[in-house]
Amino acid sequence: MSPPGSLLQPWGSEPPKRPRWIVPLVVALAVGGGLLMVPSVKRGVVRLVDRMRTERVVVKREVVEKIVEKRVEVPVPTPPPALPEGPSLSSQKDAATMFSGVKVVSKIEPEKGKRATTERGSADSYQVEVTVKVRVPEAARTYEELCGINPALPGFFPGLRDLLKRGKVSGFYHHAYALKQAAVKTNILRLDRLLSRHNFYDLETALELEGAEEKQKALWLQGEMDVVSDGSDGDRMESFDDYLYKSQHFQPSTSYGWAKVTDKVNPLVPRLEAELAELKAKVGGAGSAEKKTMQARIAELPTRIGDLKKRSYLIAQEDPFVVIPLSFRSFKGSSAYTPSIGDYAVVICGEKMLPAIVGDYGPSEKCGEASLRIAREIDPKAGPYNRPVSDLKVTYLIFPGSAEKPRQPDYEEWHAKCSELLGKLGGDPAKLHHWEDRLKAKLAVPVVVPEGGDAEGAETEGEGEKENPVDPVSKKP
Which residues span the domain enclosing 341? Predict the structure, then answer.
């Protein structure tokens, strides 16, 4: 195979050698014979000389060889750890935040002990100390503090500054936070059951107020608003929302209730009867744990069904009412500011002032809850799992001792009573909201006609019973 240079040199790598005597011979012949005088010969000699010069040009091609270096990293094995020469006594600390918002700080503090046989028999050698650190908040009470929460308050109470100066922080505020601490203590070894940070700090203040002239008393609670969807009334409702019925904490009754006055069937009764029949059919084949739950429900349902056939209750999706802690009931008779079921109330949030009644009891350690009707007036997107207000911006103004005999809600009557009480306290009744009665089926109320009189202007009242704040089935007040 020819080398690379052969492509440019037809004779190979070197030109062929010629005898040295050729050039002198040609010159001698030209000079001696006069051939150089002939033009054609002259041109031939010139071409021969030029060719000899051209053929001596050598072109060399340089080939560069590329060297690639490949580096390979060889892992160096980690040397094995050295054995400790003594006990490890260093403290270790860690911190985390639970889903409830509670910060948890854990710390291990080892110390040198005696032999394992000895320490195994000592209760103090291996122990866990749980300390919950919580700051108990100070109650808001000044004009500036409360107006900082809701700047619209002076528009509802022209004399708010003086009203607050006459008031004082209620013992219900201190009672509420004492119960919260007790709840934490009860569940201190069950961190998953501790009150969340949100629910621990759900009450901004509780104030005992009194009107300047008529000495009208009111309990001012400042908090958030959770939503209750409880209650049912066969006399006023022909159907019930399936979503609300199946919500997690739904109860068919409220603490405020009265005797039925019609033979209309509560729409929840057929559902509960069907549930009872289904449970009885399945309980035989259930596992032990499931069977226990089913048997408890089977025992509860007949009483529940019987109660709904006899009594009516508030309907959270239609009736405006608020919920107070069950523990407040214990102070009835010992404090003039103790709220009770049926007391009239006013709810203030932003630019809205809504008439209501106290309609239900809730958990003792929580504050701030209202019916779905009130919640959706504040925020149309509110629901059983979506509170309208999470901040402590809702005012619950309750008029203790104003409750009347429980009966079917009359929104116009509620409005009139709340307007009267609000005016006595120094508020502006003209800004009180008017509720629309959206239930089409009205309860027929008998008219009481005095002897010798006529029906016009006669006092009317539906059939009712005395207040019964305790649910007859779940014992929920």
Answer: 141-266+309-477
- Looking at the structure, tell me whether residues 339 and 437 fall in a common domain: yes
List the beta bridge partners of residue 352: 349
Task: Kindly list the distances between the CA atom of residue 286 and the CA atoms of 279, 283, 290, 297, 300, in Å, as whole numbers in the listed order.
Answer: 10, 5, 6, 14, 18
Those residues with Cβ within 8 angstroms of residue 45's Cβ, 6 or more apart along the chain or in another chain:
26, 30, 36
pLDDT tens-place string over residues 401-422: 999 999 999 999 999 999 999 9
Is 89 part of a structural domain of the chain? Answer: no
Q: Residue 83: inside a domain, yes or no?
A: no
Task: Return d(Cα 463, Cα 446) in angstroms, integer.
Answer: 9
Q: Give the up-direction half-sphere exposure of residue 68: CA atoms within 13 A in the CB hemisphere.
A: 2
Cβ within 8 Å of residue 257, ≥6 positions away = 311, 312, 313, 314, 406, 465, 468
Residues 240, 357: one domain? yes
Look at the chain and count its residues.
Answer: 477
DSSP H or E run through 165: helix 160-166
Measured between its terminal Cα atoms, the distance across the chain in Å is 110
Q: Reduced to 3 states, what is the DSSP secondary structure of residue 219?
A: strand
Alpha-carbon separation of residue 27 from 22, 31, 231 (angstroms): 9, 6, 137
Looking at the structure, do residues 349 and 466 belong to the same domain, yes or no? Answer: yes
Could you write out the DSSP letters of every residue in 2-67? Answer: --GGGGT-TT-SSPPP--TTHHHHHHHHHHHHTGGGSHHHHHHHHHHHHHHHHTT-----PPPPP-
All residues at 6 or more sequence positions from 463 whose CB lies less than 8 Å from its CB, including other chains: 258, 259, 261, 407, 446
In angstroms, rounded to a whole number, what is the distance separating the alpha carbons of residues 140 and 146? 7
What is the torsional sign of CA 433, 160, 358, 226?
A: positive
Beta strands in 86-174 (DSSP E): 92-97, 103-108, 168-169
363 inside domain: yes
> Residue 207: phi, psi to the nearest 5?
-120, 140
Q: What is the DSSP letter of 197?
A: H
DSSP helix/strand/coil, 205: strand
**What's this model's pTM, rounded to 2 decimal places?**
0.74
Q: Which residue, among 109, 464, 398, has the nearest Cα to 256 in the 3D structure?
A: 464
The strand pair at 321-325 and 352-362 is best described as parallel
What DSSP line would sit under 288-346, residue for residue? HHHHHHHHHHHHHHHHHHHHHTTEEE--TTTS-EEEEEGGGGGGBTTBTT---TT-EEE
Residues 426 and 325 in one domain: yes
Query: For 315-365, how does the pLDDT look when each residue is reduced to its tens digit (9 = 90+)?
Result: 999 999 999 999 999 999 999 999 999 999 999 999 999 999 999 999 999
